[in-house]
Amino acid sequence: DAKTTQPNSMESNEEEPVHLPCNHSTISGTDYIHWYRQLPSQGPEYVIHGLTSNVNNRMASLAIAEDRKSSTLILHRATLRDAAVYYCILRAKYYGNNRLAFGKGNQVVVIP
Amino acid sequence: GAGVSQSPSNKVTEKGKDVELRCDPISGHTALYWYRQSLGQGLEFLIYFQGNSAPDKSGLPSDRFSAERTGGSVSTLTIQRTQQEDSAVYLCASSLLTSGRNEQFFGPGTRLTVL
To answer: Labelling A32: which of A24, A80, A88, A98 has CA 20 to 30 A away?
Structure first.
């Protein structure tokens, strides 16, 4: 599995935007970039994914660098409920290898 | 609607005993995954089932671990002769395979403690 690198932890003030970086310099042309988050004492939940273009959904936005070697998850307005571990994961585009390779993730702390 | 459910939510066992952990995936999901998460760590892939294909067992840490999926639905993860290092949260996920999203829906996990 191609490797991703994230900060161990970040702090953000409530109601401010949060930018979570992820480096994936060994990404292949067929790898999707997936983001999951894990709230305390829960299983992970899907946040967003993308391939080449920037993506937006109700939870977040995903900005992908032009060379695809890095990406940034953007939470537009952090709330206390966004405090979680955020995982940046690469997933191959083809069937047959659908497991997710979770790293240690980025622990986001939201300060009231 | 019903999500992925797992049972038991907590399991305490003695070293050397066998345990069975159950996962009920979302109805209609063809893919089922088992992961485990040790304290303060990320998730570790264990095994993956897809339809009638042979499961991908490449993540199972030893031959004490096995899993089956009956009728393409419920799955059971069995750990024989448990060891203290098996203590972890065991998470199950299911998904509908698509070319891109392949969103995995996770259950709440089973916290296993081996004394």
So the answer is: A80
Q: Is the pLDDT of residue A95 over 60?
A: no
- The label of the residue with tokens 């305390």 reads A40
B24 vs A40, B6, B17, CA distance in Å?
A: 22, 6, 23
Please state, in angstroms and rounded to a whole number, the distance separating the CA atoms of residues B72 and A106. Answer: 35
Collect all residues of chain A within an 8 Å Cβ-Cβ radius of residue B51: none
Task: Collect all residues of chain A within an 8 Å Cβ-Cβ radius of residue B108.
Answer: 42-43
Q: What is the DSSP letter of A60?
A: -
Contact: B102, A98; criterion CB under 8 Å = yes
Which residues of B make CB contacts under 8 Å with A?
4, 31, 33, 35, 41-45, 48, 50, 56, 59, 91, 93, 95, 97, 99-109
List the one residue out of B97, B22, B103 whose CA is nearest residue B53: B97
Distance CA B103, CA B8 (A): 24
Q: Locate A50 and state its tokens.
A: 């993308």
Rounded CA-CA distance B60/A15 in Å is: 42
Confidence at residue B12, expressed as pLDDT on a 0 to 100 scale: 98
B10-13 and B110-114: which strand pairing?
parallel
Residue-wise pLDDT for B59-108, tens only, equals 999 999 999 998 879 999 999 999 999 999 999 999 987 656 678 999 99
* A17, A36 Cβ separation under 8 angstroms: no
